[in-house]
Write a structure and sequence with these properties.
Layout lengths: L1 E2 L5 E2 L12 H14 L3 H13 L2 H11 L4 H13 L2 H12 L6 H5 L15 H24 L1 H14 L2 H41 L3 H4 L16 H22 L3 H18 L12 H19 L2 H35 L3 H15 L20 E6 L3 H13 L7 E7 L4 H10 L6 E6 L12 H6 L2 H8 L24 H4 L4 H4 L5 E5 L3 E3 L16 E3 L10 H4 L5 H6 L11 E5 H7 L1 H11 L11 H7 L4 E3 L5 E2 L10 H6 L2 E3 L13 H8 L7 H5 L5
Parallel strand pairs: 3-4, 3-6, 4-5, 8-10, 11-12
Antiparallel strand pairs: 1-2, 6-9, 7-12, 8-9
Helix pairs in contact: 2-3, 2-5, 11-12, 11-13, 11-14, 12-13, 15-17, 25-26
Length: about 700
């Protein structure tokens, strides 16, 4: 006996030697039929079962066999002659596992019509089988695919003929599928957790003071269009004005008066409401009354051409009003930015009076020996605002790791010299060194040396600034109003180009504007390698309007030949300057050259940033952006995380933190360095 590849025992070799005996073709036919027709096993098993059981089974089998047609009997006869006892036992065992499935019900599937026994039929039988199989083959295949019995037989057949290696591969594939599914579920869960955490962080950054408190139960949130009634009233008022005009043209005074009365009532009911919840309770009645009058007016006055012309005229008038209001807003914001609040003006006056009452020996600051020590950390601060300067100094010292090594060089004008001295004499910056100077006492800073001073004294510049007929009104010239800011007339603003002249014995100095707040220790800036450059600054070219072509006139050949219009701009406000490299490259001389060429303001408008970009072109080393975050004086959408992580925050723009027009959401960063319970501040009514 021997075992074939499928694990079925077949007849062994004959005693005469040579290949397998006459039973080998039968075994091959069996294996072929098992592969081709999954239902073969069922019928063979049933046949064996009925012909190989006990005597009682034989009786029942004989009765059932009478029902079998000649094809089934023929198949059973051939199968018995083909298979050995061991093979029959295997088939019988598998058939028993199928359960009590009746042969009659199985016969209904007409499976026998699809069987062929190759090499065993007579020619007549073979032709009959072939004919009937061709007629019924398609229907039989369809029935087999839908039969649940065949599904279970397929499973049993696979258990018989599948090799262990194939089963192992199937199990391995199943494990891989399960592992992939588990990994995908885990990834989905991780992504969900990340999204939830990001949403929580974003919700924490929402400023309720700016956005207002939101509740889904508020009346205006009950409707997607919370201002639909307000818009309806406004539309009615517009049409009322149109019909009032038409009533006058068509001599309908009574209707015109009625429209005028309803218009006034609607205006009173609307008031300053922007949402439906803000409307007066009588708004619904006014809308109804206005609608009736408008219907009446439409019947009597409507003329498509006249109404269209009147609406077009009203639209043009509204557009003119919007432009006028924009100019007025620009003018007032620029004006507000130039002014000094009463409280700060009061503070300066009180401090000045008290300073002049001091004896000369009490006006001296301690530790003056540190002023020229190049081994310390030196700061340059040029300001005429006492309160702003105090915030810069206090915030720097409070965040410094070694305050005793910090030296502040303050320069102000003669009007605020006494106040600045008095404030820091009363409020010394701890162990740090401070010194206050008067810019008007710099005798070397005169019109013969400084081109800006000479230009400011010229008749053309005086006319530009002070001539009454010059278009600085709302109707013309307001777009250039910012260039006429008084700070551009002050040498405090241009003194930054003369740092080596003011501090000849220092090697490095950190320049600070008076509208900044320091939030971290800044000593790391002195160890930044500038790679031979003069100026260390944060670049601001994240937007296109912060590039050179925004500040300089590239239609001028001198500018076009020497500079790249797409070069990245940078910011004043916090700059580390290498004064040794400054002297070596003669930065002040470069500044003088270009300032002389711009006497007629053909290269750039007034200010210090355009000449700074020119003077330090190719000589500026970019610093990390976290050193200096800008925009708190004009941009309401500065990222809160950037502000909190910045070493210096800058209120550049018109909305300075000491002005009433400052943005509330940013003002607290500045006010926390002011002691509002100070006697001078209380007397001048300065508060948060």
């Amino acid at each position: 006996m021997g075992t074939n590849k499928r694990g079925i025992t077949v007849a062994g070799k004959s005693s005469k030697g040579g290949g397998y005996g006459s039973r080998l073709p039968g075994a091959a036919i069996l294996i072929f039929c098992l592969v081709v027709s999954p239902s073969f096993l069922f019928l063979v098993g049933r046949g064996i079962f009925y012909t190989s059981s006990t005597d009682q089974d034989k009786i029942s089998t004989s009765s059932r066999n009478q029902d079998l047609d000649w094809r089934e009997r023929l198949a059973l006869q051939h199968v018995k002659s083909l298979l050995t006892r061991e093979v029959m036992d295997v088939i019988k065992a598998n058939t028993n596992d199928l359960g009590p499935l009746s042969l009659d019900s199985f016969r209904k599937t007409n499976l026998s019509a699809s069987w062929k026994f190759v090499g065993q039929e007579t020619p007549a039988e073979n032709s009959a089988l072939s004919f009937e199989n061709n007629q019924r083959g398609a229907a039989i295949k369809h029935d087999i695919s839908r039969n649940k019995v065949d599904a279970s037989l397929e499973e049993d057949r696979s258990q018989v003929i599948d090799a262990p290696a194939k089963v192992a591969r199937r199990q391995l594939r199943q494990k891989r599928r399960e592992k992939r599914a588990a990994d995908l579920v885990k990834q989905d869960e991780e992504v969900t957790v990340k999204l939830e955490n990001a949403a929580i962080e974003r919700s924490k950054s929402v400023d309720s003071a700016v956005l207002g408190k939101y509740s889904i139960w508020r009346k205006e949130n009950e409707n997607e269009n919370a201002d639909s009634t307000v818009c309806l009233m406004r539309d009615q008022m517009i049409m009322a004005r149109v019909y009032i005009s038409l009533a006058t043209m068509k001599d309908k005074p009574d209707l015109g008066r009625e429209l005028q009365n309803r218009l006034k009532e609607s205006q009173r009911a609307l008031g300053e409401a922007t949402t439906d919840s803000d409307l007066h309770h009588s708004a619904a009645e006014k809308i109804k009354a206005m609608g009736q009058v408008l219907s009446k007016a439409r019947e009597q006055l409507y003329d498509c051409k006249l109404v269209t012309g009147k609406l077009r005229a009203m639209l043009q008038s509204a557009d003119e009003q919007v432009r006028s209001l924009k100019k007025q807003s620009t003018f007032l914001s620029q004006l507000a930015a130039k002014t000094i609040p009463n409280g700060i003006h009061c503070l300066s006056l009180r401090l000045t009076i008290d300073y002049h009452m001091l004896s000369p020996e009490k006006r001296i600051f301690p530790r003056s020996e540190n002023l020229e020590n190049p081994n310390l950390y030196h700061y340059a601060l040029f300001s005429d605002n006492v309160l702003a300067a105090s915030v810069v100094v206090n915030s720097t010292i409070m965040n410094a790791k070694e305050p005793e090594k910090h030296v502040f060089h303050l320069v102000t004008d003669k009007l605020n010299f006494g106040a600045m001295n008095m404030w820091f004499l009363l409020n010394p910056p701890g162990k740090a060194t401070i010194h206050v100077e008067n810019v008007d006492e710099f005798k070397w800073l005169n019109s013969s040396y400084c081109p800006v001073l000479r230009q400011l004294e010229s008749a053309a510049m005086k006319e530009y600034y002070f001539k009454a007929a010059h278009p600085t009104t709302l109707s013309a010239g307001s777009s250039n109003l910012k260039y006429r800011n008084p700070k551009y007339l002050s040498m405090l603003n241009h003194l930054r180009f003369y740092l080596p002249k003011v501090y000849p014995k220092l090697d490095k100095i950190l320049f600070l504007d008076d509208d900044i707040v320091v939030q971290k220790d800044l000593t790391g800036l002195w160890s930044v390698d500038l790679h031979g450059k003069v100026n260390g600054a944060v670049e601001t070219c994240g937007e296109s309007f912060h590039r050179f072509d925004k500040y300089l006139n590239f239609s001028n050949p001198h500018i076009a030949r020497n500079f790249d219009p797409n070069a990245c701009g940078w910011a004043y406000g916090m700059n580390i300057f290498d004064l040794k490299a400054w002297k070596k490259k003669d930065i002040t001389g470069i500044y003088h050259k270009w300032q002389n060429m711009n006497e007629d303001r053909v290269l750039w408008k007034l200010g210090t940033l355009p000449p700074g970009l020119i003077t330090f072109y190719g000589l500026t080393h970019p610093l990390e952006k976290s050193w200096h975050v800008l925009g708190l004086g004009y941009n309401p959408s500065v990222d809160r995380s950037e502000i909190d992580g910045a070493a210096v925050i800058h209120y550049n723009g018109n909305m300075k933190p000491w002005l009433e027009l400052a943005m509330t959401k940013y003002r607290s960063y500045w006010t926390k360095y002011i002691k509002f319970d100070h006697p001078y501040l209380r007397n001048c009514k300065l508060s948060e």
